[in-house]
Amino acid sequence: MKIGAIPDIVVSRLPQYLQALNLMKLEGKQTTSSQELGERLGFSAAQVRKDLSQFGEFGKQGTGYSISYLSKQLQSILNIDRIWDIVLVGAGDLGHAIANYQGFTNRGFRIALILDNDPQKIGDKIGQLEIQDFALARELIRKAGIEIAMLTVPASVAQTVAEEVVQAGIKAILNYAPTPLKLPPNILVQYLDPLIQLQHMTYYLAK
Questions:
Q1: Residues 185-201, buried b or exposed e (16+ Cβ, 10 A)?
Q2: Looking at domain 2-77, which CATH architecture does it have?
Q3: Would the N or C end of the chain have less CB density within 10 A of its end CB?
Q4: What residue ranges of the chain are covered by domains with CATH 3.40.50.720?
Q5: Which residues contact 5 (CB under 8 A, 6 or more apart)?
Q6: Rounded distance, CA 171 to CA 156, Å?
Q7: What is the pTM of this model?
Q8: In this predicted structure, what is the pLDDT of residue 2?
Q9: Along the chain (207 residues), what's the average pLDDT of each consecutive run of 10 residues?
Q10: 4-13 LR contacts (CB < 8 Å, sep 24+)
Q11: From-to residues of CATH 1.10.10.10 in the chain
Q12: Which ranges of the chain would DSSP assign to H, the alpha helix?
């Protein structure tokens, strides 16, 4: 997959560069180099320079990159120089953990709406947000103008839920349910399944 003329694999590395830069800022550093960025992330310096050059020239030979400047440029490229509201569908244990996570807002995201279809959960609060009825999904999502959804629902209903939120105007979905979604090609979908990652690792532990 390509995002415009930029390969998706390159785009996928940009958040890693940004995360490394943010850590450097916390360490009090002001400048860095492609060598240092690469060493922190397990990439070659040449790979770092090649990736960043796809979007412009951000450093100077001999002086490297200004961490503050490069961070701001990457935030702009990734469209996170603003706050993106998110609808969270599924208020179970995982949904609660995600809704209570404090790290979203300072990275460009905010849980703005929580939906569930369990009558015993509807009306309860997670933090400052009230869990609302998924039956009202189209109305609530459209009214809030939300374009991103996180699904923490059982695999058996993930497809139905995904189709419903797409009808409400959702354009990007982060799916925690262990099942692939069949949606129109213009809908961006990413998957997060810890079990797949664990099974990947245990293959090597037995060697």
A1: eebeeeeeeeeeeeeee
A2: Orthogonal Bundle (1.10)
A3: C
A4: 84-196
A5: none
A6: 21
A7: 0.87
A8: 42
A9: 72 95 95 95 95 87 87 94 96 95 88 97 95 98 98 97 98 95 96 89 84
A10: 6/54, 6/55, 10/51, 10/54, 13/41, 13/43, 13/51
A11: 2-77
A12: 8-26, 34-41, 45-53, 67-77, 93-100, 137-144, 155-167, 194-205
For residue 62, the model assigns a pLDDT of 67
pLDDT value of residue 11: 94
User: Which CB contacts under 8 angstroms, 24+ apart, belong to 31-34?
Assistant: 31/63, 31/64, 31/65, 31/66, 31/67, 32/64, 32/65, 32/67, 32/70, 33/59, 33/64, 33/65, 34/59, 34/64, 34/65
Rounded CA gap, 13 and 67, in Å? 17
- Distance in Å from the first CA to the final CA of the chain: 33
Residue 197 contacts by C-beta under 8 Å, 6 or more apart in sequence? none
CATH 3.40.50.720 fits 84-196, yes or no: yes
| Residue-level pLDDT at 63 | 77
162, 181 Cβ separation under 8 angstroms: yes
Q: How far apart, in whole angstroms, are the C-alpha atoms of residue 188 and residue 12?
A: 13
